């Protein structure tokens, strides 16, 4: 993986749970692929610096061919290689309360991006399928996130076209498209991950991470 980009605030129902306005353009941030990505069965370390470790299930887009600058959303299907499941692990204290409000440290600690269990190619799971599939996250068997990608504010085609205005996307680059409601940060009471917790991120048509 070269670039690992993420889209924030990209589910309408996730915006509603926070009582914030729906974005008018994609909110883009990044993780570091070199050390964030771990396998689908690997453990995620609870870094000693965080007390607010959160879970986020996300649909991942895997770029299959170089995306030219200023690609139109109508042409995006030519460049998407497939889709996978991403767990966008987040240290909310470092994302939202420390480091001047910059998201990078809270999103990019080692192991904070389990991916898998497979990449499903667009032959079997199209962009249209990606816009109408169930998505959920369970912690210790309890379903805490449950939604559908129909709730996406910006679809895969819009996201890739938007990013292409600023940079060239290349084969193997990954984009996490955002998380639905139910994350620990916005629950009442808040719910943080603890050592020993089992997190299952599931997207219909792709599988369970």
From TrEMBL:
UniProt entry keywords in alphabetical sequence: Metal-binding
- Extract the GO molecular function terms from the UniProt entry: metal ion binding; oxaloacetate tautomerase activity
Query: What is the official name of this protein in its record?
Result: Fumarylacetoacetase-like C-terminal domain-containing protein
Question: Entry's InterPro entries?
Answer: FAH, Fumarylacetoacetase-like_C, Fumarylacetoacetase_C_sf
- The UniProt record lists the Fumarylacetoacetase-like C-terminal domain at 4-209
Whether Metal-binding counts among this entry's keywords is yes
Q: Which GO terms describe its biological process?
A: oxaloacetate metabolic process
Does Nucleus appear among the keywords?
Answer: no
Q: Which organism is it from?
A: Fragilariopsis cylindrus CCMP1102
Coiled-coil spans are: none
Which family does the record assign? Belongs to the FAH family.
List, alphabetically, the Pfam families matched.
FAA_hydrolase (PF01557)
